[in-house]
Amino acid sequence: MVMSFRVSDLQMLLGFVGRSKSGLKHELVTRALQLVQFDCSPELFKKIKEIYETRYAKISEPGQPPQQQPLPPPPPPQHRPPSETLSIHSSYDRNSAVTRTGLSTTPNIDYPSLYGKYLNGLGRLPVKPMKPEVRLVKLPFYTLLDELLKPTELVPQNNEKLQESPCVFALTPRQVELIRNSRELQPGVRSVQVVLRICYTDTSCPQEDQYPPNIAVKVNHSYCSVPGYYPSNKPGVEPKRPCRPINLTHLMYLSSATNRITIIWGNYGKSYSVGLFLVRQTTSSELLQRLKTIGIKHPELC
């Protein structure tokens, strides 16, 4: 009904609620539709009804009483995902055969319901697409308990080759309790751990752990040991290092105190992301027992 209004009708409606009346017709229509969508007051719909009836009363033949005119047909529906379309009022029945006539013959009409019919198929304002998140591959010897810091890109702060990226966080009482009550796998190493994982900033697929050059990790006031390089006996071949989660638990405050982690890394063009996770480390015997519980499958079925 609003979409059938002329410019003067739209300006009258917008002026009634104190909105700006300037602009082209499609701008006025958009402004009026948004007004109806977010302000479903009885006074507003009464004014729309009044403008509509006044308009069609003027175009009736002289000497004849005003006749009811059919409402204009709605715009053709557009195929959009359900999340992008306007919701329909619960009182609107798609299968009901409601005659599209003037509002004067339906004193008890549900205006929001009628509005839903004529906006069906019109999408909301475009939603800004969300940037894909970096995902890390699942590791068989670690069971994820909590995600303390989602994989976040390491952003260089200057043009220096050696960069420092700080991170501040605190454990919850539940997380502290999980760590304290976990069993020791070996002296000083508990099964529930806070681990740091680093990988390439690539959202196309789950990423494996990958360290940047010159990696060093400082937890509070102490440096954490990072796996070193494997020795290489081949000339001209760069030594490799095992990239795996870095256990930070033994250097952290197991209380409500704030922990500060500083990652020192080399900025040589590649982009890296870091994440903090609360995990439970699984021993090889536990993993073997879990595999036995699942059962043995034929290789062709795997």
Automatic annotation (TrEMBL):
Entry keyword set: Transferase, Ubl conjugation pathway
Listed GO CC annotations: chromatin
Q: Region annotation Disordered: residue ranges?
A: 60-88
Name this protein carries in UniProt: PINIT domain-containing protein
Give the highest taxon in the source lineage.
Eukaryota
Q: Which residues form the SAP domain?
A: 2-36
Show the InterPro entries listed in the entry: PINIT, PINIT_sf, SAP_dom, SAP_dom_sf
Which pathway is it part of? Answer: Protein modification; protein sumoylation
Source organism phylogeny: Eukaryota, Metazoa, Chordata, Craniata, Vertebrata
